[in-house]
Write a structure and sequence with these properties.
This is BTB domain-containing protein. One of its GO terms (biological process) is neurogenesis. By secondary structure, the protein is an alpha+beta fold. It has helices spanning about 15-20, 50-55, 60-65, 85-95, 105-115, 120-130, 135-145, 150-160, 165-170, 180-185, 195-210, 220-225, 225-230, 240-250, 255-265, 445-450, 455-460, 475-490, 500-510, 510-525, 530-540, 545-555, 560, 570-575; strands at about 30-35, 45-50, 75, 310-315, 320-325, 330-340, 345-355, 360, 365-380, 385-390, 405, 410-415, 425-430, 440-445, 470. Helices cover about 40% and strands about 15% of the residues. Helix 4 packs across helix 5 (about 105-115), helix 11 (about 195-210) crosses helix 12 and helix 19 packs antiparallel against helix 20. It starts with 13 loop residues before the first helix and ends in a 7-residue tail after the last helix. The mean pLDDT is about 85.
């Protein structure tokens, strides 16, 4: 193939130049001969390549071309792959790009593993995870098992459990190995009736007989299935009518088993059946969500060294399979989640793992599920602590958590784990404009009293407050939470929306160190557009240094400040000043 003169000068980057010689005769020193599709030896195509490029990207190609027994032929035949898939492998080695599709991803994954290209393996697995559905799950599952991809395998089983009937009626189900069929019938969680499960197993056995060139009679199918699969089907769960019309006609069960099942349906059985009678768990996922609104990360939610906890109570016994956590776009997290009995602080179930956030289509936020290896039974009216130690980037969050939620007829109640040792609660509006919507902040009198003389008098003075619930209508939830955060930890999350209210509370409850932090924040964020708003608070609370800084800004940027919305409220103070620049 002829190339334009000086083509190198028109491609400024190494990536562009390497991509240019992909599937190009220029400088090519090796050719790969591959069939258009596997098994079609009569129709071959040639892909020109470059030993150096392949060798720096794959240890297998390095050994092939530069090892002790290096390949000397300039034409190499690869009958175990097809043209399109090898082309995509090479495209990735030359350009870091790959065009994956449902038709080629499995073969590209095979080649990426064969030639030890882990970055391409990762892209193939990501594609499979993103495109995993019931109709292709039994195609993907064997590859996940073969390449020991535990995460992808778990995702496959989750799809099978949740969409069992659709997955089993797919064309791919009858192509799987017998071991996969056995694993399916042994699952405790399946979303299909037992008769549909039997139909799928019978269909697989019939197809397997055809593959082996055998007659698909009942006896042969029984032998191919084996006792583990037959005994894994819970025949007592199949209605008698379906048993007679479906199971009986298949002739897979023997005479004695048919007789025992007939006695079972008529209540005449005296000996134990060889089949399980316990119902499988319906895999339909019921999610109990206590949030209605969701916020993107922005300044928070940050994860620290301490675990995030909440206390959970249910009104009816339930099986808890896992806990969903907030995440972030493409965010990766390391999480240890425990369900703890607060009475003796013992962990009832625990799960540690690495998780990647996914977008929730229904609620439009990013999150991930931490699923336990086994469900934990939550007893009615007993408190459990849900505890997660999370390491990772800032996540989505919500501030509108409901204290009580009903899901599938079960009442779930949530409260902050801070209620432990709590001896007072503060009831505050969520925002000053929505005083009818209130939230509760649990607290501890001792901690508040050692940090604020006002709280000291409130709880330990001569006229100490005796109620365990105190209404504070003059502040809002977020601002009081920041006041308490400071009293408990010497830390505060100030923002433009809360700093004025926190300043007010710091002054009201006589916490000068927090007052100074608010003043410092305001000084650092003082502009001509907000100066008159801040000046009002500085004069009100006696912040002399802050007031002086405000006047400095007004004197330097008088015209801009005077056109702000806040100017009108303090116009009387402004006209008394003698020094202006306008």
């Amino acid at each position: 193939m002829a190339a334009e003169d000086n083509w190198q000068t028109k491609l400024p980057t190494l990536v562009e130049r390497t991509a240019f010689i992909f599937n190009n005769e220029i400088l090519s020193d090796v050719k790969f001969v591959v069939p258009m599709s596997i098994g079609e030896s009569e129709s071959n195509k040639v892909i020109p390549a470059h030993k150096f490029v392949l060798a720096i990207s794959s240890p297998v190609f390095f050994a092939m071309f530069y090892g002790r027994v290096a390949e000397t032929k300039d034409s190499i035949e690869l009958p175990d792959c097809d043209y399109e898939c090898l082309l995509e492998l090479f495209r990735f080695l030359y350009s870091d790009n790959v065009n994956l599709s449902g038709n080629n991803v499995m073969q590209v994954l095979y080649l990426a593993n064969k030639y030890l290209v882990p970055s391409l393996v990762g892209k193939c697995k990501e594609y499979l995870r993103d495109n995993l559905i019931a109709s292709n799950v039994f195609c993907i599952l064997p590859h996940a098992q073969k390449f020991e991809d535990k995460d992808l395998e778990d995702r496959c089983w989750k799809v099978i459990e949740e969409q069992t009937e659709e997955a089993m009626t797919s064309d791919e189900f009858v192509t799987v190995e017998r071991s996969v069929v056995e694993s399916v019938v042994k699952r405790e969680v399946l979303n299909a009736t037992e008769v549909e499960l039997f139909k799928a197993v019978n269909r697989w056995a019939t197809k397997e007989c055809e593959r082996q060139g055998m007659t698909s009679d009942g006896e042969t199918k029984r032998r191919i299935l084996g006792e583990e699969i037959v005994k894994g089907i819970r025949f007592p769960l199949i209605p008698q009518k379906d048993f007679a019309s479906v199971v009986f006609d298949s002739r897979i069960l023997n005479y004695e088993e048919f007789g025992n099942m007939t006695k079972y349906y008529n209540g005449l059985i005296n000996t134990p059946l060889p089949f399980l009678k316990a119902s499988r768990i319906d895999s339909t996922v019921h999610r109990c969500c206590r949030f209605k609104t969701f916020c993107s990360p922005k300044e928070r939610w940050n994860y620290g060294k301490a675990a995030d906890c909440i206390i959970l109570t249910v009104k009816k016994p339930v099986k808890l399979y896992g806990v969903q956590h907030f995440g972030s776009e493409s965010g990766e997290y390391t999480v240890t989640t425990d369900i703890v009995d607060p009475l003796d602080n013992t962990s009832l179930v625990s799960r540690t793992g690495n998780y990647t956030s996914e977008r929730s289509d229904a609620d439009a936020y990013y999150g991930f599920d931490v699923l336990f290896d086994r469900p934990v039974i939550l007893k009615a009216d007993k408190e459990y602590k849900v505890k997660s130690l999370i390491k990772g980037p800032k996540s989505w969050y919500s501030e509108g958590g409901q204290a009580s939620v009903e899901c599938q007829g079960v009442q779930f109640t949530f409260r902050s784990s801070g209620d432990l040792l709590c001896d007072v609660k503060f009831v505050v509006p969520v925002s000053t404009s929505e005083s009818d919507s209130k939230k509760v902040i649990p607290a501890h009198k001792f901690v508040l009293a050692i940090s604020s003389p006002v709280f000291f008098v409130m709880f330990y003075g001569q006229m100490a407050e005796t109620k365990d619930s105190i209404d504070l209508p003059d502040c809002e939830y977020e601002s009081l939470l920041e006041l308490f955060r400071f009293l408990y930890s010497d830390k505060v999350n100030l923002s433009e929306s809360n700093v004025m209210q926190v300043l007010y509370l710091a002054n009201k409850y006589m916490v000068p160190s927090l007052f100074d932090k608010c003043t410092e924040y305001l000084c650092d964020n003082l502009t001509a557009s907000n100066v008159f708003c801040i000046l009002t608070h500085a004069r009100k609370f006696g912040g002399k240094s802050l007031e002086d800084r405000c006047w400095e800004v007004i004197e330097r940027r008088t015209e801009e400040a005077a056109t702000s919305d806040e100017f009108v409220s303090v116009v009387e103070c402004v006209v008394k000043r003698e020094k202006y620049k306008m």
